[in-house]
From TrEMBL:
Record keywords: Signal, TPR repeat
Cleaved signal peptide residues: 1-25
Protein name per Swiss-Prot or TrEMBL: Uncharacterized protein
Organism taxonomic ancestry: Bacteria, Pseudomonadati, Pseudomonadota, Gammaproteobacteria, Oceanospirillales
Provenance organism: Alcanivorax dieselolei (strain DSM 16502 / CGMCC 1.3690 / MCCC 1A00001 / B-5)
Taxonomic superkingdom: Bacteria
InterPro entries recorded: TPR-like_helical_dom_sf (IPR011990), TPR_rpt (IPR019734)
Coiled coil regions, renumbered to chain: none
Length: 351
């Protein structure tokens, strides 16, 4: 076995000693050289390198307060640049420029003093990118599935053709259906595991439609149940809000007796078609009919006493309650003619 020449060991030891002694006797760079390098590092946003340079100077000359202040300034500048980088990376991610966002974080992290938030954001963006890609692909697969389903009659039509292209197309369509079923089932199950039941239901429903002879995905039934319960809760909450609003309007009418308040609650109930409010809606319609009968009678009494202006005012106010009522419109027209004739007589008398 070949061994190193033992006669050369003293010379190697001597060389190592000289190198070590030379390193110990190296003269520190002049202050102006250090300042120039420091400024260059700061200009290029290499804050960790700049801090290392400054700490080396502080070790040589710790009694310079301006160096300590400059150290704090470098740390603050690094922090501000870090926040700018985080904001820019998030902006890029919001535009789905994932490669640029990750590249920015990776290239910047090594130059910061405390790069921890950048590392955390990189991991967060990886997760966001994966979710967004899954959503994009799911939408694409669903579009393809709908296209196949919309052209389902083509399958039966092609079976009557003898040309090879017809058989090849049928095989291609069957392969596409099988592939899309697998992909949509996988993504639908992933959405179900995350509790995103709406997306899970859409993907799994299409997967089952593509191959209806196969058992429906288990998560599809679960998604449908969850969404049905959610719809039921939403409907109950909406009904409760509408009932509270209706009761508030009804209370206002009972306190004021104002036709305006009665019209307000009728309009609200008509704009909220909810079967749970049918009883209240019927009650309001009854109140409207009673109010119509009462005010019509009041107007008739005033008209009979010759108080045409007062009768006209009541009927005019009543018009929004029954805008197409023939009887009411006739009374208004007749009263307008009477008032016009009276004004004409007054004008003639004054002459």
């Amino acid at each position: 076995m070949h061994r190193p020449d033992s006669a050369r060991r003293p010379s190697l030891l001597l060389l190592a000693g000289l190198v070590a002694l030379s390193a110990c006797q190296t003269t520190p760079p002049p202050p102006e050289v250090t300042r120039k390098s420091l400024q260059q590092s700061l200009h290029e946003h290499r804050y960790r390198e700049a801090l290392t340079m400054l700490d080396a100077r502080l070790l040589q000359d710790p009694d310079q307060p301006e160096l300590s202040q400059q150290r704090e300034d470098i740390i603050q500048a690094s922090r501000e640049y870090r926040e700018q980088t985080l904001a820019e990376a998030q902006r890029l991610a919001g535009q789905e420029q994932w490669r640029d966002a990750q590249g920015l974080l990776e290239s910047t992290g090594g130059h910061l003093i405390h790069p921890g938030p950048l590392v955390a954001l990189r991991e967060s963006l990886h997760q966001q990118e994966a979710r967004r890609l899954r959503q994009r692909l799911s939408e694409w697969w669903q579009a393809q599935a709908r296209a196949l389903l919309d052209s389902a009659t083509l399958d039966s039509a092609l079976t009557g053709y003898t040309l090879p292209e017809a058989g090849q197309t049928l095989e291609l369509r069957q392969a596409m259906k099988a592939d899309l079923t697998e992909r949509l089932t996988e993504v639908g199950n992933a959405y179900a595991e995350q509790g995103d039941w709406s997306r899970a239901q859409r993907a799994l429903h299409l997967a089952h439609q593509l191959q209806p002879d196969q058992p429906a995905p288990e998560a599809l039934g679960q998604a449908q149940q969850v969404l049905a319960r959610a719809r039921q809760r939403a409907e109950q909450q909406q009904t409760q809000r509408q009932r509270e609003r209706s009761e508030s309007l009804m209370t206002a009418y009972r306190e004021s007796g104002s036709l305006k308040d009665l019209l307000a609650i009728r309009e609200y109930l008509r704009s909220a078609p909810n079967n749970h409010l049918t009883a209240l809606r019927d009650e309001v319609e009854t109140l409207c009919r009673e109010r119509y009968t009462k005010d019509m009678a009041t107007g008739d009494a005033l008209y009979a006493r010759g108080e045409y202006q007062a009768a006209y005012a009541i009927w005019q106010e009543l018009k929004p309650l029954a805008p197409d009522n023939v009887e009411l419109n006739k009374k208004l027209e007749r009263t307008r003619r009477v008032l016009n004739n009276l004004r004409a007589l007054d004008a003639t008398s004054s002459e």
